[in-house]
UniProtKB/TrEMBL annotation:
Its EC number is 1.1.1.22. The active site is at C337. It comes from Pipistrellus kuhlii. SUPFAM superfamilies: 6-phosphogluconate dehydrogenase C-terminal domain-like, NAD(P)-binding Rossmann-fold domains, UDP-glucose/GDP-mannose dehydrogenase C-terminal domain. The keyword Transit peptide does not apply. It comes from the Eukaryota. Pfam families: UDPG_MGDP_dh (PF00984), UDPG_MGDP_dh_C (PF03720), UDPG_MGDP_dh_N (PF03721). Belongs to the UDP-glucose/GDP-mannose dehydrogenase family. One of its GO terms (cellular component) is nucleus. It is an enzyme of class 1 (oxidoreductase). Substrate binds at residues 222-226, 281-285, 321, 328-334, 399-400, 503. Catalyzes the formation of UDP-alpha-D-glucuronate, a constituent of complex glycosaminoglycans. Required for the biosynthesis of chondroitin sulfate and heparan sulfate. Required for embryonic development via its role in the biosynthesis of glycosaminoglycans. Required for proper brain and neuronal development. This is UDP-glucose 6-dehydrogenase. NAD(+) binds at residues 72-77, 97, 102, 150-154, 191-192, 226, 337-340, 407.
Length: 555
């Protein structure tokens, strides 16, 4: 295909074969692709010629995305690209990862992650226009668009440890992309990153430039909720795309918009500059985490006064200015995003000399930590102020229901506090593999030496976990926990038998459970009429998975 004719050198070949950029002429320098996906307009002149329209059509064709490469086959990259493949059957989507076992799992009947509806989407597209591979370099070379969906954990050492995001995987991806790229390519950050991370990627690209290479950097953060990720991807509240406010940057934005417009209405696709897009992701997660910490702080007040936090949440949630979402009191929020993003926001504010703002958002994390310690303290106090050598059943280890993700799960923290007191834990979760539970609890900051092998047992079903237990602790709101035969469980437990409901999943069963003989403790409400007169033995120390491991005496 030959390029369209141009006026006397007003245009010249651009940084990739077959594209054009404006020459030095004033009119030509002002030409850019318009919002209609290829229309070229002369800004400030009111002139639109056939030549310019032809040039716009040429650019529109050449910016069409036919092949997508996603680096990172985790909780973001896997589901996102599976849905893109299903919604855009003409686009070839390849998800790559250095972890060969993970890629093998994506190519098998047993996917590496659990997400309702994901398996059906993958099986419908895999081998047609959806592929999973460890051949990263070839996938990058062939792609028109590269998603960066790698992990950005919180730093555990060095400057900013415990708060700043570790961008080593992002940097490694940027270097590998520029090494294996030629021509024109759009690079899009999908991972949750600190503000101006795109600038770092662009600096790597600029420092390693080569002839005929043009890499455009976009920000396209994900707003998925694990457990409803497929639903969120197919019917999103919004799709946010940030790019440079330059003609080339806007052309890249429109190209990515065209992919999402296969199934997302145009009015739900929001375009911003890169910095606004990156900050919007951090701010959104910070606001959601803030609401959870707010209602959890009220739950402590409810327990002290006799109010019911569920009734309070319903009352304030009916105010349309507030709304009823994310007002569910619990043992605390978890997952890969909330704590990491709030800490990242705190670090950003401190780096920008905004200590008051940093302190405000730090309180969201502090309340979440307090809620976990407070719940663990209630367990210990309820069991006559000691849990040493007592069997405690932990029901649920994922950070929320309908997912197998355990990152920053409150179950890890509750288990750590109980292990520190010498409790024997019998843990059951319907979707979290045994190996994952052992890895999480063997983290140097959680336990040491052979503490897990001595104190932790992974059960195959909830009845096995509860057999002979002093207490049942519900840490994840799996629906199946509402349907258990609690009379059967009570018969095999030591008496008095306790239930500590950290997720309010048994609210409708309190009367029945008390009739059976259970002593019930739940978040944000006084249930048991007979409370044992034991005062807290002391403050449980703060703990974070981001903290460096501390040596402690063996139990």
């Amino acid at each position: 295909m030959k390029p369209p004719p141009s006026r006397a050198g007003a245009f010249k070949y651009g940084p990739r074969p077959g594209t054009f950029v404006a020459g030095r002429g004033d009119l030509a320098e002002r030409l850019r692709c318009g919002p209609e996906g290829g229309a070229v307009r002369a800004v400030g002149t009111g002139v639109r010629t056939g030549v310019e329209a032809a040039l716009g059509a040429w650019n529109a064709v050449m910016f069409e995305i036919k092949k997508i490469c996603c680096i990172g086959a985790g909780y973001v990259g896997g589901p996102t690209c599976s849905v893109i493949a299903q919604m855009c059957p003409e686009i070839r989507v390849t998800v790559v990862d250095v972890n060969e076992s993970r890629i093998n799992a994506w190519n098998s009947p047993t996917l590496p992650i659990y997400e309702p509806g994901l398996k059906e989407v993958v099986e419908a597209c895999r081998g047609k226009n959806l592929f999973f591979s460890t051949n990263i370099d070839d996938a990058i070379k062939e792609a028109d668009l590269v998603f960066i969906s790698v992990n950005t954990p919180t730093k555990t050492f060095g400057m900013g440890k415990g708060r700043a995001a570790d961008l080593k995987y992002i940097e490694a991806c940027a270097r590998r992309i520029v090494q294996n790229s030629h021509g024109y390519k759009i690079v899009t950050e999908k991972s949750t990153v600190p503000v101006r991370a795109a600038e770092s990627i662009r600096q790597i690209f600029d420092a390693n430039t080569k002839p005929n290479l043009n890499l455009q950097v976009l920000s396209n953060p994900e707003f998925l909720a694990e457990g409803t990720a497929i639903k969120d991807l197919k019917n999103p509240d919004r799709v946010l795309i940030g790019g440079d406010e330059t003609p080339e940057g806007q052309r890249a934005v429109q190209a990515l918009c065209a992919v999402y417009q296969h199934w997302v209405p145009k009015e739900r696709i929001l375009t911003t500059n890169t910095w606004s897009s990156e900050l919007s992701k951090l701010a959104a997660n910070a606001f959601l985490a803030q609401r959870i910490s707010s209602i959890n702080s009220i739950s402590a007040l409810c327990e002290a006064t006799g109010a019911d936090v569920e009734e309070v949440a319903t009352a304030i949630g009916m105010d349309q200015r507030i709304g009823n979402k994310f007002l569910k009191a619990s043992v605390g929020f978890g997952g890969s995003c909330f704590q990491k993003d709030v800490l990242n926001l705190v670090y950003l504010c401190e780096a920008l000399n905004l200590p008051e703002v940093a302190h405000y958002w730090q309180q969201v994390i502090d309340i979440n930590d307090y809620q976990r310690r407070r719940f663990a303290s209630r367990i210990i106090d309820g069991l006559f102020n000691t849990v040493t050598d007592k069997k405690i059943a932990i029901l649920g280890f994922a950070f929320k229901k309908d997912t197998g993700d355990t990152r920053e799960s409150s179950s890890i923290y509750i288990s750590k506090y109980l292990m520190d007191e010498g409790a024997h834990l019998h843990i059951y979760d319907p979707k979290v593999p045994r190996e994952q539970i052992v890895v999480d609890l063997s983290h140097p900051g959680v336990s040491e030496d052979d503490q897990v092998s001595q104190l932790v047992t992974i059960s195959k079903d909830p009845y096995e976990a509860c057999d002979g237990a002093h207490a049942v602790v519900i840490c994840t709101e799996w629906d199946m926990f509402k349907e258990l035969d609690y009379e059967r469980i009570h018969k095999k437990m030591l008496k008095p038998a306790f239930i500590f409901d950290g997720r309010r999943v048994l609210d409708g069963l309190h009367q029945e459970l008390q009739t059976i003989g259970f002593q019930i403790e739940t978040i944000g409400k006084k249930v048991s009429s007979k409370r044992f007169p034991y005062a807290p033995s002391g403050e449980i120390p703060k703990f974070s998975l981001q903290d460096p491991p501390n040596k402690k005496p063996r139990v």
